[in-house]
Amino acid sequence: MRLIGKQIGYAILMVLGCLALAIFLTVNSIWLFDLNSHFLDLKQATGLNSAQMHSDYVRIIQYLQLPWISSLKFHYFFSSAKGLQHFHDVKNLILLNNGLGIILVPLGSYLLHRLNKKSLTWILITPIKVVVTGSLVIIALMLVNFEQVFIAFHEVLFRNQDWIFDPNTDPVINMLPDTFFLECFLLFFVLFFAMLGFIYWQGRRSIRHA
């Protein structure tokens, strides 16, 4: 019973650490936006060139990631109060994620090191299988109907409707199409699975060395 408790506790800490790190890396993947600005022909949708869109997208990421930047100011877009409020709500979530990551990623790495030394990493194999199975269900739903999953995602995280952008009042949404957000979700899961895969591999090794 004590081992099961440790198994659940360690698994939760490591999965949350992987989540936080995968979210951080995804949010900061400016290269993904730059690829989309070319391949999705966002120039036609926004009337801006790639360099101009890159500039304002970087401003978004800096605003979301840096606590000391208190206001979002675009060079090439205007924004409504509701649009800016949504970016502020997202910023709060991003900073919360980063704060958790600063704690959980080093803690998870330390626990993984300890489990490896004791050849006990195998206790994480079953929890990882459960998390991966649940994640695959979410991915399947996304591929079938991403719009509905995207809406549900926002309804869970936000208590208002500020996330529904009107291109007439918040034209920045024109350079952030649904396809881009789908790619962000898929990139997140690739990173998340890669981290879980590494832990799983360590677990399989611990069985051989037990």
Sheet having the most strands = none
Enumerate the spans where pLDDT stays under 50 for 5 or more consecutive residues.
none
Q: Please give the number of β-strands.
A: 0
- Helix count equals 8
Structural class: mainly alpha
Whole-number mean pLDDT: 92
The dominant shape is elongated
Strand percent estimate = under 5%
Terminal Cα separation, in Å? Answer: 20 Å
Give, in order, the helices and strands.
HHHHHHHH
Helical residue percent band: over 70%
Overall radius of gyration: 20 Å
Describe the structure.
This protein has 210 residues and is mostly helical. It is built from 8 helices and no strands. It has helices at residues 2-27, 30-39, 42-46, 50-65, 81-117, 125-144, 146-157, 178-209. The longest helix has 37 residues, at 81-117. The radius of gyration is 20 Å and the shape is elongated. The mean pLDDT is 92.
Gist of the model:
The chain has helices at 2-27, 30-39, 42-46, 50-65, 81-117, 125-144, 146-157, 178-209.
Short key terms for the protein model shown above:
75% helix, single chain, 8 helices, 210 residues
SSE topology sketch:
Layout: H1 2-27, H2 30-39, H3 42-46, H4 50-65, H5 81-117, H6 125-144, H7 146-157, H8 178-209
Helix pairs in contact: 1-5, 1-8, 2-4, 4-5, 6-7, 6-8
